[in-house]
Amino acid sequence: MSLDELYREVILDHYRNPRHRGRLEHATAHAEGQNPLCGDEVRIDLVVDGGRVVEIGVTGQGCSISQASASMMAEAVAGKSVAEIEGLSSRFRAMMDLEEGDAGIDESRPGESLGDLEALQGVRRFPVRIKCAALPWTTLKEALEGDAG
Ligand code: ZN
After folding, report:
1. Torsion angle, alpha carbons of 126, 12, 143, 131, to 10
2. Which residues surround ligand 1, an ion (CB under 5 A)?
3. pLDDT-based confidence at residue 149 (cuts at 50, 70, 90)
4. Distance 109 CA to ligand 1 centre (A)
5. Which of 30, 40, 42, 95 allows an S-S link to 60, with CB 3.0 to 4.6 Å?
6. 112 C-alpha to center of ligand 1: Å?
7. Which domain CATH number covers 29?
8. Cα of 149 from ligand 1 centre, angstroms
9. Distance from C-alpha of 76 to C-alpha of 74, rounded to nearest angstrom
10. Does residue 24 surpass a pLDDT of 90?
11. pTM over 0.85
12. What's the Cα-to-Cα distance from 111 to each of 30, 38, 76, rounded to whole Å?
């Protein structure tokens, strides 16, 4: 199996079996994001306690890239501190060539794996799809910022 095929399998697995799917009635923060280019919608509910995302729920609809990315993101950030999530987010953005310069590269953690999220790096070849992959992360950022108040 080629790396491309492996990545495709990982993306399809998250699309078909999304992790942390559902609304959280007791959420402390939430945000909704849309990608009008593709029709993707993502809603993220969070329970943030003591600077840590203790629960995350994701709902939405759209293309396989956006929904798989949301599932991968939820899996990656569940239980993490807000600071850890910022690090993950910037490493993801760096992988997707979304960061300007090398601002997203954390030199103190060379080569740290992004896990399943690495399956999305093939999307870089399709610039229109990068917005699909990034949508859950921009929505998460909005939810976290909304929680600050
Ligand atoms: Zn899309």
Report:
1. 10
2. 38, 40, 63, 66, 132
3. very low
4. 31
5. 42
6. 27
7. 3.90.1010.10
8. 31
9. 5
10. yes
11. yes
12. 31, 32, 16
